[in-house]
Specification:
- The chain has helices at about 15-20, 40-50, 60-75, 90-100, 120-125, 145-150, 175-185, 210-215, 245-255, 265-275, 280-300, 325-330, 355-370, and strands at about 25-30, 85-90, 105-110, 130-135, 135, 140, 155-160, 190-195, 220-225, 240, 310-315, 335, 335-340, 345-350.
- By secondary structure, the protein is of the alpha/beta class.
- The strands form four sheets. It has a seven-stranded mixed sheet, with helices on one face.
- The model has no long low-confidence stretch (mean pLDDT about 95).
- Bound molecules: pyridoxal-5'-phosphate.
- The site of pyridoxal-5'-phosphate (PLP) has 14 residues, from helix 4.
Length: about 375
């Protein structure tokens, strides 16, 4: 049995995903963590750190930065200097810090649907956002640069997720080049959340870090990375902002302003082990996720656009005409995410990162839920 076949009972572990439906016959396919064990090499690193009995405040060590630099090189052939890296306890704090770099009247542009914390960021920073829907172009979700251009007034920053949550897009080089041109032409800052970068499923897709592939706009970018999604350690937050421009980096760091906590030593130990990984664990994970995506796709058919990356499927349910989307799926024993949360009703997001036995049960229920 592989690490990815084993059904691990997560009830009574204070799991956000599983506790939501405690005591009910509802299987959770909502929040974005996986029902797979974190790999041994990460758990061993945690045990090793615990050999020291004091878990005090910790500065991110150079070994963490070196591991991150090595990881960028290993996966993307991207070599960056250590000074570009700002360590953070999570990607979401980094997005909020970035928005605080905007002037009082400057606005934030967000292509939607998108991971729901994006939708709170402008409010959190007492700024305004401009939301521009992605367009579905022959089965592919794309940024609508024409509409983005027409709504550019007052905008100084664009914030994207690539790979995109919830649509599962991995933007192509041509799309990133067009976005880079838009950013440059309009004198903007780009925040690119690339937390799902390792989870590329489609054979013909690959992750392209925008600051690497569009060097002309690197000085305008804040790219956010973490190993926590890939290795299923989101409870041990640790993220890296890569900011090539020294002035932008200084402004970004100044926005920390007592709001953002330091990174715990266990989080650092786990992420360092993850960034140093060159084993086949990730390949095995991707193999399992590809098989799961194929099973889900076979069941839901054209309701679902191709998941190029992430372990999240974006499924059209407009024809069901539901008033309460979550309640409908819960009544069929399924916990899913309502698309409205991401800024697009008529869709659900389905997290398929789980062992086959669980997915099989979920798909039986989903089949009924989509028919009734
Ligand atoms: C696109 C995206 N960004 C950020 C996060 C969360 O990042 P963190 O836990 O490091 O704040 C998630 C989690 O699902 C995500 O999907």
């Amino acid at each position: 049995m592989s690490d990815f076949d084993q059904l691990i009972d997560r009830r009574h572990s204070h799991s956000t995903k599983w506790e939501k439906y405690a005591g009910q016959d509802i299987l959770p396919f909502w929040v974005a963590d996986m029902d797979f064990a974190a790999p041994d090499f990460i758990r061993n690193a945690l045990h090793e750190r615990l050999e020291h009995p004091i878990i005090g405040y910790t500065r991110p060590p150079t070994t963490l930065t070196e591991a991150f630099q090595g990881w960028l090189n290993h996966h993307y052939g991207w070599s960056i200097p250590a000074e570009w890296v700002v360590w953070l306890p999570g990607v979401v704090p980094g997005m909020n810090m970035a928005a605080r770099c905007l002037g009082a009247k400057q606005r934030l542009m967000i292509p939607t649907p998108v991971y729901y914390p994006f939708l709170d960021i402008a409010d959190n920073a007492q700024r305004q956002d401009v939301r521009v829907p992605l367009i579905l172009d022959r089965g592919v979700w794309r940024m609508d640069l024409e509409r983005m251009q027409s709504q550019i007034g007052g905008v100084k920053m664009v914030m994207i997720a690539n790979p995109q949550n919830p649509t599962g897009r991995a933007y192509t080089q041509a799309e990133l080049a067009a976005l880079a041109d838009f950013i440059d032409r309009n004198d903007l800052i780009l925040v690119s959340d690339e937390i799902h970068c390792n989870i590329v499923l489609a054979e013909d897709s690959k992750h392209l870090p925008i600051a690497q592939w569009q060097p002309d706009i690197a000085k305008r970018t804040i790219s956010l990375f973490a190993a926590t999604k890939t290795y299923n350690i989101p409870g041990l937050g640790c993220a890296a902002a890569v900011i090539p421009d020294a002035d932008l980096r200084t402004r970004f760091q100044a926005r920390e302003a007592g709001l953002v906590s330091s990174i715990g030593p266990l989080n650092i130990a786990a992420s360092q082990a993850a960034f140093n990984d060159t084993s086949d664990w990730l390949d095995q994970l991707l193999q399992q996720l590809r098989a799961n995506a194929a099973k889900l796709g076979a069941l839901v058919g054209p309701r679902m656009t191709k998941v190029e990356a992430t372990y999240l499927a974006w499924i059209n349910i407009a024809d069901l005409g539901l008033n309460d989307v979550e309640a409908h799926f819960e009544s069929h024993g399924l916990g899913i995410s309502d698309g409205a949360q991401f800024g697009q009703p008529d869709y659900i997001r389905f997290n398929f990162a789980c062992p086959d036995v669980l997915l099989t049960q979920g798909l039986e229920r989903l089949s009924k839920a989509l028919q009734s």
